[in-house]
Write a structure and sequence with these properties.
About 35% of the residues lie in helices and about 25% in strands. By secondary structure, the chain is of the alpha/beta class. The chain has two domains: about 290 residues, Aminopeptidase (3-Layer(aba) Sandwich); about 130 residues, Alpha-Beta Plaits (2-Layer Sandwich). It has a six-stranded mixed sheet with strand order 1-2-6-3-7-15. The chain has a four-stranded antiparallel sheet with strand order 10-11-9-12, with helices on one face. A three-stranded antiparallel sheet has the order 4-5-16. Strand 4 and strand 5 form a beta hairpin. It is elongated.
Amino acid sequence: MTATGTISEDDIRRLFARIDASRADLVRLTQDLLRFPTINPPGADYGAICAYLGRWLAARGGAVEQVRAHGAPDDSDAFPRWNVIGRFEGTEPGPCVHFNGHIDVVEVGLGWTVPPFEGVVRDGRVYGRGACDMKGGIAASLIAIDALLACGLLTRGALEFSGTADEESGGFGGAGYLARQGCFDRTRVDHVIIPEPLNPDRICLGHRGVWWAEVELTGAIGHGAMPFLGVNAIAGMGDLLALIEKDLMPRLGNRVTAMPCMPEGARRATLNLNSIHGGQPEPGDGRPAPVVADRCRLVLDRRYLVEEDFADVRGEIVELLDRVKATRAGIDYSLREIMSFEPTMTAPDAPLVKALDHWIEALFDRPATLIASPGTYDQKHITRHGSVQACVAYGPGILDLAHQPDEWVGIHDMLTSAKVMAAAALTLLHA
């Protein structure tokens, strides 16, 4: 393996040998994490998994803090939003490399052939809900930290790990809360690696922007037998949908970003019609209400490019709404923002990216593939509310397996990713 800077070949050999020898520990750690059914919603077992991680970090000499996100969305006494942070200090001053992983998983869903929370090991894989996204990545990053400590290689700077809540529902009670508390301030942290499952030979530099919004059209209620005396909001929504399909969608499809988004379709601006609700709710037996629908709501999921301006993104929807209002008498509208995050991307020549790329090439015998994500992840909080701009996603696992039945992570991929993360961290600490 090719050493860099002040790191010796012997340092790397010892580091990688320690990680290889930790295979059983890595598998057991992954299994332990999977056995906490941290399903979000509602946000179950956050306290239990954070206590487990806290004990693991403390056993290796880390200064550990448990942080509850009081006041964050969905935080409650029944389902508190707990997070855990561990910090390891070197003997000399230097930079800090931080590993951040989300502890929550999505619902199990149908179609499983293995128990989702037992951590079944089969054919070189660990199966379970969250194995790929992203408890396998958490385990790999912890084994990387363990190897650096066990080999006595943390002589400069600091290593940190955080296990955070609610990434699957926006991260507001997790990385977002910690960022607002200063945990990702540039005076404390220099580089952040999020071991999301984006394949172990790829580095994710950032993601497209997201704008979730709710449009409500209102008309006038009337008797269903005399619809000409009311104004049907569903019909107005039909006008809006037609304009979106015929006018806006072709324009979005012609916009292509320079960001290396994967898959290829994500290089274009997109709009998903997430849900639609119109008229009066039917009673339990399903009988319709005999009235004209005086309201109709539509939820939009707009993913926009770094080359687009957010004011224009919003303005395009407003312009279509104004056209509907002007052409269908009696229709009005309101527009409510649900969530918005700007596009973000770490520079491809940042030291963090170059360090990871160096060790990916050393271990895979080819340069890393640099990508950007079609959807957001917790980098949005770290770079927006924190002041750390050097943040990427890198970890084991195949992204297509996330949220699927029989989700799994490869043991070899975890070991290789742990080596990349450990060697890259060591490179950055001694830069």
